[in-house]
Amino acid sequence: MSTPRQPWHQFYEPDAFHPDDLLADNLASMLADIFATHAANPAYSCILPNGARATLSYADIDRYSAAIAFYLRDHLGLAPGDVVAIQSPNILSYPVVAYGILRAGLILTGINPLYTAAEAGFQLRDSGAKALFVIDLFGDRLQKSLEGSAVRHVIRLSVVDFFPAPKRLLIDFVLRRIQKRIPPMDHPSIPLARALKLGRAAQMKAAKAGRGLADLRAERAIDDSAIYQYTGGTTGRSKGAEITERNILSNITQQDRFTGDHLRAARRGDETSLLVLPLYHVYALAIGSMHAMRMGTHVVLAPIPDP
Fold first, then answer.
1. Is residue 226 part of a domain?
2. pLDDT attached to residue 4
3. What total number of domains does the chain contain?
4. What integer pLDDT is reported at residue 43 of this predicted model?
5. Which CATH number is 113's domain given?
6. In what order do the strands lie in the sheet with 298-301?
7. How far is CA 177 from CA 166, 174, 257, in A?
8. 168 burial via Cβ count (<10 Å: 0-12, 13-18, 19+)
9. Where do the coiled-coil regions begin and end (predicted)?
10. DSSP 165-202
11. Does some domain include residue 112?
């Protein structure tokens, strides 16, 4: 006779975590608190294989992601709950755009940048994405990826976004002209810098009308989907899992309960973490990125597939 199984919760500390006992009311308010608390600290750095690097502060991420939120909602006219895709390795643009999508009350879906055009196309169609932020390294497969999708707006990203001008221009020239690693985009697109400029203009116009970031997500609730995370597809086509804001906040709260006290006790004020896991996976975005940000950690991004 087999031994009766014990309930799973018996192995956890009493009252260790309750589903309603979250660190924030929603993702937008958590991000706002993070940006305000650590404004002057370095938030993200990207270091390329040639040693070139650039850094954005928490205040930079706050400002740029807010511009992206208004670009998507007010300039493009996307509605609450619409889906926006990012297909990119870990570069400085990724957290800026990802947090802009979430702050706008939209749904984020991250696409593996090494996907074939057919694989990326399936995710774009299946998720119903209406806008795509895509790394320029794979611009020659873009048109095929977009066939049959609902995407009407394409914004191109670069590994040197937010790098100082001389360094950015030099590296871009080498990648584009000498190494021939950046092909011509085979579909109309605008650069991230243009989207940011349009977003700032939309944000200023909204401010004059008395509207702010909170108004962009007024129709969204904590149990609404925030991310469509696609599985690895090891047993067939990749499948989209709907992840709510509550799911993400629960993960961050759980991580804080298990490691937060230790991390806070060990703080010296200049903590740095290396994030190798890809941000298109929700664990890297929620724990490797957002949970680290709550601690004011300086996150160094490894731009896979160029580690």
1. yes
2. 62
3. 1
4. 97
5. 3.40.50.980
6. 53-57, 42-47, 298-301, 272-275
7. 16, 6, 50
8. middle
9. none
10. HHHHHHHHHIIIIIS--SPPPSS--EEHHHHHHHHHHH
11. yes
Spatial contact of 152 and 123, defined as CB atoms under 8 Å apart: no
The answer to whether 98 and 69 have CB atoms below 8 angstroms apart is no
Q: Which two tokens stand for residue 9?
A: 């919760």
Q: With contact defined as beta carbons under 8 Å apart, do 23 and 219 qualify?
A: no
> Is there a cis peptide before residue 305, judged by omega within 30 degrees of 0?
yes
- pTM for the full model? 0.91
Cα gap 119→236, rounded to integer Å: 12
The whole domain housing 239 covers 56-244
- Give the pair of three-digit tokens for residue 36: 């305000």
CA distance 120 to 136: 15
> For residues 187 and 144, what is the distance between their CA atoms, to the nearest angstrom?
9
Q: Note every long-range contact of 227-230, with CB atoms under 8 Å and residues 24 or more positions apart, other chains counting.
A: 227/107, 227/108, 227/109, 227/110, 227/282, 227/285, 228/83, 228/107, 228/108, 228/109, 228/127, 229/109, 229/110, 229/281, 229/282, 230/109, 230/110, 230/111, 230/123, 230/127
Q: Which two tokens stand for residue 57?
A: 């502060």
pLDDT mean values, one per 10 residues, the chain (307 residues): 60 59 89 95 92 94 98 98 96 98 97 94 97 94 96 96 89 83 90 98 97 92 95 84 94 86 72 92 94 93 66
- 303, part of any domain: no
What pLDDT sits at residue 181?
81
**45 to each of 102, 221, 272, 297, how far by Cα in Å?**
21, 32, 10, 11
Phi/psi at 275 (5° precision): -100, 105
According to the model, what pLDDT value does residue 12 have? 60
Rounded to 10 deg, the angle between the 192-208 and 58-70 helix axes is 80
Q: How many CB atoms lie within 10 A of CB 187?
A: 17
**pLDDT value at residue 271:** 87
Does residue 277 form part of some domain?
no
pLDDT at 13: 62
The one-letter amino acid code at 259 reads T
CB of 98 closer than 8 Å to CB of 53:
no
